[in-house]
Amino acid sequence: MKLDLMQLKAMHPLLPASTAAEYGHRAAMGLERHLHEPGVSLATLIESETPPTSLHWIASAFGDVDQLDRHQITEDAAEGVTLALVNVALGWVVKRRLQRGEFADWLLQDSEARLVALEVSGIAEGDDSGRLREKLDQVRYATFAHRRVACVVELATPRATVATA
Amino acid sequence: MSLDFLYLLVTEAIRRAETLEDLRAPGMHTAYSEVSLLEEKVAELLPASDPEGALARRGAVRAALAARELGRAQELTERFLAEADANAELQAGLHRLFEESEHSTALRFPLVAATVGMSEVRRLARALVEQGAPFPIG
User: Fold this and answer.
1) In chain B, which end has fewer C-beta atoms inside a 10 angstrom radius, N or C?
2) Would you give the distance in Å from CA B47 to the centre of its chain?
3) By CA distance, what is B64's nearest residue in A?
4) Which ipTM value was assigned to this complex?
5) Cβ neighbours of residue A47 closer than 8 Å, sequence gap 6 or more
6) B100–A101 CB contact, under 8 Å
7) pTM of the full structure
């Protein structure tokens, strides 16, 4: 499975072009900061499946990496990787961003037009199981959606874990 | 305006408002005001009984509170509560937004909360807005 981080707008037509470009750009920066290159394998766990996955972006000399907040780059990189992953692997498409307090970051729809609430989190490196538990505990309250899902992306490996609450 | 276009705008507006909020930038209230207006427009297109319609109604009120537009938040809430297809979950959710807002304000102003009470502050604020003049408070 090939995830092209530069194609987020094509994957999610309702994602504003500027947001899609920003996520793609910051995902590239976040990954390059950990010395990854385009084509790097993403260790993917979707529920109990582990599909072989690779990440792709257009490498360039990102001059502003030190001007941006590291935490923000990690979070935005996680958003970019997650949105690419759930689209390619599961066929989900963004409907809209949710406000803080709605227990999820994104409202998407699956291939049968059912609502999916998605909570995303990113960590630079280390064990992500605690963060995943925390996010699953949060997103389970998003009862307006048919399905409630959390995804945690760890950039050092890199690794993405998707689970349903 | 189509729902798809409004969703695109609301996504953009929420991200901008949250970025400004994280920076504690003065423009955050204006940005949340914009979010509230867009959520209200979404609510006009979707019934309250639709999960996305309910989300938009909560969103319009939530963002108005974040913009510190208490009068607008109250007016929207009254309008949404009066809708025939507003279910109990939506009604409880709208009331909860005010409780959360009052709770966070009480944490910032503990003395006022302990002496006057936040409900009374809200009542006085509304009276001030409605009478259109500062004194006397009704």
Assistant:
1) C
2) 19
3) A99
4) 0.92
5) A162, A163, A164
6) yes
7) 0.90
